[in-house]
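Cross-posting from the chemistry board since nobody answered there.

I work mostly on the small-molecule side, so proteins are not my area. We synthesized adenosine-5'-triphosphate and want a rough idea of how it might sit in this target. Sequence and SMILES are below. Is it possible to get a predicted 3D structure of the two together?
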Amino acid sequence: MSFLLDGFITEFFALTSTSQHPFSATSGGSVNSTLSTNSKSIHGIEGLSDENVWYAPAVQSMVAMLILSTIPRIISTIYGWIHPGIYNYIVEKLYVSVIINQDESIYFQIGQYVAEQEELARSKKLRHVQGIAKDNESSRYPRNYFDEEQSTPTPQISLLPRTGSLQIVWHNGQKIWVRREIRKVENGESLGNGLKGLNLDLSSLLQRSQECFNIRSIIQDWLDSIYSRDYNKLTVYQCMRIHYGDYGWKRISNKEMRRYGSVVLRENQKEEILGDVQKFLGSSKKYAMRGIPYRHAVILHGPPGTGKTSFIKGLAEKLKLNIAYISLVASLDDDGFLSMLTRVPANSVIVMEDFDRSHITKDAQESERNGGSGLSGIPRITEAGLLNALDGINTPEGSLIFLTCNNLDKIGRAVKRPGRVDQIYYLTYADNYQIREMFWRFFGKGKQTTDPEARKDNPELQKIANVFLSHIQSLNQNLTTATLQKFFLEYEKEKEIEYWKQKKEQGISKDSSSGSVSINTKDLKENDEKKQHVDHNEQEKEKKEEEEDEYKSIEIDLNLLMDKDYVINLFEKIQMETGVEEKMMEEIAKRKAKEQKKKGKEQRKKEKEEEKDDTEDTEEDTEEDTAVKSDVADTNDVGAPSPPASPLPNGVTSL
Ligand SMILES: Nc1ncnc2c1ncn2[C@@H]1O[C@H](COP(=O)(O)OP(=O)(O)OP(=O)(O)O)[C@@H](O)[C@H]1O
């Protein structure tokens, strides 16, 4: 009922107010003329001038369309008051509607499209909206470390229609009503506002012989437009609980893909995994012929920060796949798990991370003791559920599954056996090849980042890379690629800080030397306030653009990377900050203690030498004094004996 009332009110305002007509957002000018002609066209067209006559039929048909689309709603609303049965009958006969539940993977795309149309239209009709935070990527760079405002960008707010509000979206001249509404459970009761079970109810006036196929093709157009715009971006889905007992795939981000080339594994390892996956993706017929379930599971294991997640993202970019994360530690039971696998968004690689930390350990009893498998009341995936998933019982044809873990020993043999898991790869600490590649990817220019031949053109950087590598080797420590990345970022940051510091100093001295132009506040006040505001905004924009260009062109001085002490100290600082594994911390502590001891020894040695020098000086002084005294004595008391030489060793003074 309220749905139709809203529709009626919307139509009423659309007819009575030209500025609020949905067309006004896209073609404001033409709408005014259209509607001002309405009254004339209804009573005839005699009032129209010759040059306007040509569009009269169009105006008439538009008005007729508007009336036609409104009248059924008005009638159905009135009848709805009189008799719900009649209301239902009219709705049933005159409208088509499609409901998309929140647990459908396209729910978010359709919701996004509709919200964007609303934002585009900036409809003045929307009065009560939902405010959500919008991530403002562009405000993050350039990073001038002295500009505090810049480093803490203000969050941006975006307005969306509220749950329950009615939106109108025009598609090729056809009007679609869209409403987000709280989902009704099966017995017809609403779940209440606290729960986020939502439907998108899209309805449209029934058009002859098109029925729901028309609205289906409209929704398909919307989806196509969203997908074509976001093509080349990685869509990441996460399996989430939508409301009690119900799970869905939620799109959590739509990012630029991580480039496959930006991930550095051991020499040829990346190509090996890629080749294996490509071979699988191109072998559907072979699998079918042999009657083998067409699915492929890969385990990536190794210490944290060796690039397991990064590699999967890079692989997804390379193969143009989306990523669907499913957490094995979430409160998800076997039924939920398997049903989610059947609904995995198309063209996705399924990723189950931190497998060894899940409740599915190699010892099922241990798992139960730890509260797994539902004994603690929290629904859990059981080992049997996981084995079924890996066997491909519920997974769609062509499923590609990646499992990641730090400790492979914690995974039961049943899981690892051939047929369930097809390949196992170990990603470990960075070797010389990876250190070198990471270095060039960070500091090389153009082709040098990936092409060893091109690096020969930069012997200076090659020298720095070699010396840097030898410093790392002298550390004699296992370093992950994540630690190396952090090192380079920290180094860059330090150098940038130095750069901005210098810039700031130069800026101040430049201003003071040139006797910067002082602003006459009186003159400013006389200026038009609006103009000032515009000028200020433009200046800010220009300044930002200049800084952005400058940021891109900052030349980082890499010579410090050849300083062994600097490199070792920065690594230790990073390792301390990032809380590396205990063993590494122990090693650092040991080395620190050793260094401290060495320094203490050197200090004592130095002190001893200084004291020795002092004693020698004292002795010399004493001798000199004695000589002076004896001279004096010679002069004053000729014949007095000289004092005996001290029997104490050097540096010990006699009391
Ligand atoms: N081999 C690598 N090549 C490029 N970048 C890497 C590599 N390994 C780690 N990194 C960087 O380190 C960070 C952490 O890496 P990532 O999350 O992929 O590690 P992980 O092995 O999945 O760790 P965990 O086991 O804790 O999940 C990322 O920012 C990534 O850019």
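Reply from a structural biologist on the board:
Welcome over. Reading the output above for you: Residues 97-231 form one domain. The chain has a mean pLDDT of 70. Happy to explain the token format if needed.
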